[in-house]
Amino acid sequence: MEIKEFEKMLASDRHQGNMEQIWDEKSSWFFHRTEKSKEKFENRLVFRLIRDRVLLQENSHILDIGCGTGRHLLEFSKYSSHLTGTDISSKMLTYAKEKLEKVSNLHLLHGNWMELFSKENEYDFVFASMTPAISLVEHIERMCFISRKYCMMERFVSHVDSVREEIQAMLGRALNRLHQNEKEYSYAVWNIVWNLGYFPEILYETEEYEEEKTVEEYLEQIECTKEEEKKIREFLKSREKNGKISSFHKIRRAVILWDIQER
Ligand SMILES: C[S@@+](CC[C@H](N)C(=O)[O-])C[C@H]1O[C@@H](n2cnc3c(N)ncnc32)[C@H](O)[C@@H]1O
C-alpha cells in the first residue's frame, strides 16, 4: 500500500474544526478525568521502556507534542531536566503550568506545533501521546526531522466496556465505536514510519479497571433510534445501584518507538 493510503487512516472526523477551541472546551473534563484515574501512571509502558532501555539521560532534550495537562512531562522530569511541552490549547497549558509548577527548566509553548518546531536534530526524544497534532505524513516526517535520536508515540488501540457488550448482544447489532477503538491509527503510523525508512517497534499494554457511569452518561455515547433508546434505558435501569451502573473495562494501548539513527 502507498504511504498516502496509510495517511488516510490517521485522520478522524472527531478532529475536524477549530482545534484550539475544541480542546479549550474539553480541558476541564480531560484534566479531571485523568487526575481521578487510579492508574499508576509511572508504570505505563512508555515509562517502563524509558527505564528498561535507558532511553533518556539527565541532559536529554525532550519535546512533548500536544502535551495537554502535562502528565507525561511530569514523569519525564524524573529522567531529564530539559523539557519542552507544546499545545494548541491555552487552557490545557494552564493546567500543565499548575501541575508542573515545581519543575525547573521547563518550556511550555502555546500554538500549533508545526509552526513552532522546525529545527533539525533539536531534540533527543520527540514524544506525542493521543494527539490529533499527528494526523498527516508531514507531521511524522517533522517529528523525525527535529529528533536526533528517538521518536515515540502512544495511542489507544481498543476499548471494551462490559455493559456496552451486553447492550450490543441485546440489540443484536454493533454499537458505534468508542473513540479509543482506533486500531488503524497505530497500524498506519507504523507503516508510515517504516516507509520513511526507519525500523519502528510497536508494543502493547492492557489496562483493566472498573468504572461507574450513570444511565445518561451511557446514552450520550450510544447512537441509536428512539425505540432502541427505550430498551437500553430499561436495561441500564435494571442494572443501576445508587444511581450508577458498574462496568468492567479493558483498554489496550500501543507504543511506537523508532530510532532516527537506525535507517
Ligand atoms: C487527548 S489530548 C492528550 C494530551 C496529552 N498528550 C495526554 O496524553 O495527556 C490531545 C492534545 O493535543 C492537543 N493538540 C491538538 N492539535 C494540536 C496541534 N496542532 N498542536 C499542538 N497541540 C495540539 C490538544 O490541545 C490536546 O491538549
Strand sequence of the main sheet, in spatial order?
3-2-1-4-5-7-6
CATH class: Alpha Beta
Helix content: 40-55%
The structure class reads alpha/beta
* Averaged pLDDT: 95
Give the end-to-end Cα distance, rounded to a whole number of Å.
20 Å
The domain tally reads 1
In the CATH hierarchy, what is the superfamily?
A: Vaccinia Virus protein VP39
The run of helices and strands is HHHEHEHEHEHEHHEHHE
Number of strands: 7
Number of helices: 11
Description:
By secondary structure, the chain is α/β, with parallel strands linked by helices. It has a single domain (3-156, 181-206, 252-259), classed as Rossmann fold. The chain has helices at 3-10, 19-36, 45-52, 71-76, 90-99, 113-116, 137-146, 162-171, 183-195, 215-220, 226-239, and strands at residues 61-65, 82-87, 106-110, 123-129, 147-161, 201-213, 245-259. The chain has a 7-stranded mixed sheet with strand order 3-2-1-4-5-7-6, with helices on both faces. The two termini are 20 Å apart.
